[in-house]
Specification:
alpha/beta, Arc Repressor Mutant, subunit A, 3-stranded antiparallel beta sheet
């Protein structure tokens, strides 16, 4: 059984398609509606963990999101169970992100968590921290879960899911829980969800995946900004031909760039074998394109139709 969710957020279309399967062999397939043919696809691979104490409903939430099913029977998770998904999001006119998502259902045992934290959480791009609204102590223990994941994965985005909202007498949090939440996790987004009814489950997951994708793209833009300076240097050196360019000529031609950043780019170009550097004075040098550098510089204007984002 497969499921598909599509909607709009901030004027941008997003869709989620279930392509994969859990390690238990259960499968799901789906197909997204094609609106327009994208001019550029940005691909990435993401690892998302779902954490929290035993019996808070982590597996049930995943089953609801992935397969749109729910079971009253409780079956504890041993180790970590993997579900493979595909998440797509339109980020600009005819620009599409396609993310292969590994969704990890992590067991709720504290001892195993602490013993295998590196194996469980290394490389995570984000996580969902789940508590049971009928057991306030599970919210308190999320502090340990959050700190453990972030001690390994770094300051990655996360969202708190307060499960079993269908058992609430009212549709909002009681003042005590709300105050506890704001003290324990100031400015951290949270969602009232129900694995049983499906309320807010899709939306909560989509919001986290959107934030993770945006973070990966922001890092990619920063990397590309650095590479842009290197590309400009390569193009400049290509125009100058075999005589190359001196440090002073580079500084004069790129006055808009930070001096230290410019020197780092030249060092990177030399380290990657795209330029060779010759010292021509106590504080000056000349760079000349290598054969590899000339080939790279001549291809700078080629369009990348598919971009593999490093994650």
């Amino acid at each position: 059984m497969g499921s598909e969710v599509s909607g709009a957020s901030g004027g941008r279309t997003l869709s989620r398609v279930v392509l994969g399967f859990g390690l238990d062999g259960a499968g799901a397939t789906g197909e997204a509606d094609e609106v327009t043919v994208p001019r550029q696809i940005r691909r990435m691979k993401l690892k998302i963990c779902v954490v929290g104490d035993r019996a808070v409903g982590k597996t049930s939430l995943i089953q609801r999101y992935v397969f749109n099913t729910f079971s009253e029977a409780y079956v504890g998770t041993l180790g970590a169970k993997l579900h493979l998904l595909e998440f797509s999001k339109e980020i600009a006119a005819r620009q599409l992100v396609q993310a292969d998502v590994g969704l990890f259902d992590v067991m709720g045992e504290h001892g195993s968590r602490d013993q295998f934290r590196d194996a469980l959480f290394w490389g995570s791009h984000g996580f969902l921290a789940v508590s049971d609204l009928t057991r306030p102590e599970t919210l308190d223990s999320l502090i340990e879960w959050v700190n453990t994941v972030r001690s390994v994965a770094g300051a990655v985005p996360y969202r708190i899911l307060l499960n079993k909202a269908d058992l609430l007498r009212w549709s909002s949090l009681d003042p005590v829980t709300e105050e506890s939440l704001s003290k324990l996790f100031p400015n951290v987004p949270y969602s009232l969800v129900s694995a049983k009814t499906g309320a807010e489950v899709d939306r909560a997951m989509t919001l986290l995946l959107e934030e993770v994708v945006d973070g990966v793209l922001a890092k990619s833009r920063a990397r590309r900004a650095g590479r842009l300076a290197g590309n400009r240097i390569l193009a400049f050196a290509l125009r100058r031909g075999p005589t190359g360019v001196t440090k002073n000529e580079i500084l004069l031609a790129f006055k808009d760039l930070d001096h230290n950043a410019l020197m780092r780019e030249i060092e990177d170009l030399e380290r990657t074998g795209l330029v060779s550097r010759e010292e021509i004075g106590p504080a000056n040098f000349r760079i000349v394109l290598t054969e590899e550098g000339r080939e790279a510089a001549s291809k700078l204007n080629l369009h990348d139709h598919v971009v593999e984002e490093p994650t």
